[in-house]
Amino acid sequence: MKRRKQYTPDFKRETVQYLISSGKSQNMVCQELGLPNGILGRWKKELDQEGNANESLQDVRDKRIQELEREVQNLKQQRDILKKAMGITLIH
């Protein structure tokens, strides 16, 4: 009989954090990492049931949101600079 593979708690936690921060589906992440389908859902539930893990998952989401907000702001600034540069070149 084939023996089930054991995963460390750190691996599970990091994988769930990757799932959340990547925005990819559970099946896609499972395929990327060579994990059985559905295992990430189970790991996420286990971590959600732990008190501290829920807070750390929220921290991951908050950090990701902050990163994306910074990136949007940066892209808006770049867009505005390009608009101004295009306006200057069109006048001459």
Automatic annotation (TrEMBL):
Where is coiled-coil annotated?
A: 58-85
The answer, when asked if Coiled coil is one of the entry's keywords, is yes
This protein is called Transposase
Q: What is the lineage of its organism?
A: Bacteria, Pseudomonadati, Spirochaetota, Spirochaetia, Leptospirales
Q: Which UniProt keywords apply?
A: Coiled coil
**Domain of life, source organism:** Bacteria
Instruction: Note the Pfam families from the entry.
Output: HTH_Tnp_1 (PF01527)
**UniProt entry tagged with the keyword Lipid metabolism:** no
* InterPro entries, sorted: Homeodomain-like_sf, Transposase_8
The species is Leptospira levettii
